[in-house]
Amino acid sequence: MNIRYTVRVDPDVKVPLETFAFELAVYLADPDGWAGKGYTFTEVKQNPKVTIRLSTPETIHRICKDGTLSCAELGGHRMYLNASRWMHGAPKSKLDLENYRQYVVSHEMGHILGHDHAKCPGRDQPAPIMMQQTLGIGQCKPNTQVL
């Protein structure tokens, strides 16, 4: 299934649109992500199925009610990635910045694809991509793969 998406960066976010769009394309094409489950992703300028937006915590708080996280509509068309997390990561996830970005793109795209949150399956198991790793991983191991 091909997902047509467009990319936006809010005016008050100091990340170049081209840089953000390139990084998104790399993360979405990762064979350990949704691409490995048969999804393809195509950036388009018109008629997207999904809009992926890099937004400030204030904007996300207004839209999603929690400005500390990123969010997406379950089975919907809009994804909001938290610019502060994009630039600094989430220490509780135990992922370095690049891996955190991979995780959050896959996690939020999972919501767009209709997947809800998951829990840690057990001690020393990889954290599911749909677990809110931003908030911590408990007894799980950090993970960026869609298993």
TrEMBL record:
Signal peptide location: none
A matching Pfam family: DUF3152
Alphabetical list of Gene3D superfamilies matching this protein: Collagenase (Catalytic Domain) (3.40.390.10)
InterPro entries registered for this protein in UniProt: DUF3152, MetalloPept_cat_dom_sf
Span of domain DUF3152: 4-138
Transmembrane region(s): none
Gene Ontology molecular function: metallopeptidase activity
Protein's name in the database: DUF3152 domain-containing protein
Source species of the chain: viral metagenome
Source taxonomy: unclassified sequences, metagenomes, organismal metagenomes
